Amino acid sequence: MFIRKNKNRNKSISVQIISKDGGKYKVVKTLGTGKTEQEIEFLYQKARQYLQELQGEITLFVNRDDALIESYLSTIKNGQIQVIGPELIFGRIYDAIGFGQVKEELFRHLVITRLYHPGSKLK
Q: What's the Rg (C-alpha) of the chain?
């Protein structure tokens, strides 16, 4: 059995649990339809939980809010995360020293990162 995201005519996406029996696909259960990425991801997480219950792997105490947060965090990439704390502290020092005159943004990030998390020079 597996989970399928099926595109509908009205541009919504159905989340279904499918089993292949005798070379033919059979819809075991349709969990719902969604148009936004969050709705689809929530239905997908719900389908994963239902599939685990069908296969005997019961997950206890799964909260809807936790499933939404987990589905949102799985879509975030490292390039989208920005640490602000060191920038607030070391950014002021960086500007006070006079390095703020250097207009290269990458240089600023490299200096602040080196101050915040110094590594050995061999690395």
A: 24
What would the DSSP string read from start to end of 54-90?
HTT-PPPS--HHHHHHHHHHTT--GGG----HHHHHH
Evaluate if pTM is beyond 0.85. Answer: no
Q: β-pairing, 2-7 with 24-34?
A: unpaired
Identify whether the C-beta of residue 100 lies closer than 8 Å to the C-beta of residue 94. Answer: yes
Short-list 36, 35, 8, 34, CA closest to 47? 34
- 29-84: pLDDT as tens digits: 898 999 988 999 999 999 988 888 887 765 566 677 887 888 888 888 877 877 77
Q: Phi-psi bin for 72: left (phi > 0), alpha (psi -120 to 50), beta?
A: alpha
Query: 48: Cβ–Cβ under 8 A, 6 or more apart, which residues?
Result: 3
Compute the distance between CA of residue 47 and CA of residue 74 in angstroms, rounded to an integer. Answer: 16
Beta carbons of 44 and 14 less than 8 angstroms apart:
no
Averaged pLDDT, 95-116: 88
